[in-house]
Amino acid sequence: MKLEYIHEGSPDCPLIRLYDFDTSQAQLLRQAFEDIVSEKEKIVALHELPFIEPLGGAQVWIAEKSDIQFDDDAVTRTLEDGMLFTWMMTKEEWNDAIALLDAYTPSPDSFQWLTDDFGIQVLLSQSGTW
Asked: What is the pTM of this model?
C-alpha cells in the first residue's frame, strides 16, 4: 500500500492518498484503525507499518482525538512541507472510517474518502484515481 501526500493539482487537495494495495493490506489498515478504537495503541505511525510504502517522505500518524491533545482547532498538523500529518478522530469517527473501509470494493475506478472535510482529506483508491 502506497501512502502519498498530494498538496495541489485537484480541487480535493490537499489530501493523503492510500493506493496500490491488495485485500490483505486493506485488512491490515483496518486493524490499525481497530487498534486505536480498542485503545490497544494510543498512536500508530502508518508510514512505519511494514505493508505501507510512504512516498516523498510522507509521515502519517493516527490517534484518537481525545488521547493526543493539540491546540483546540488542530485536528491535523502539517509542517510547511506538508509531509507530517497527524490524523486524529473520535472513536465514533474511527468506527465510521472502519465501516467505509469494510464497504469499499476495490476495482480500477473505485475510491472512498475515509474522512469528512478536516482540511486534509484521506483517500482510499486501489488504482490511485478518484
From this structure: 0.86
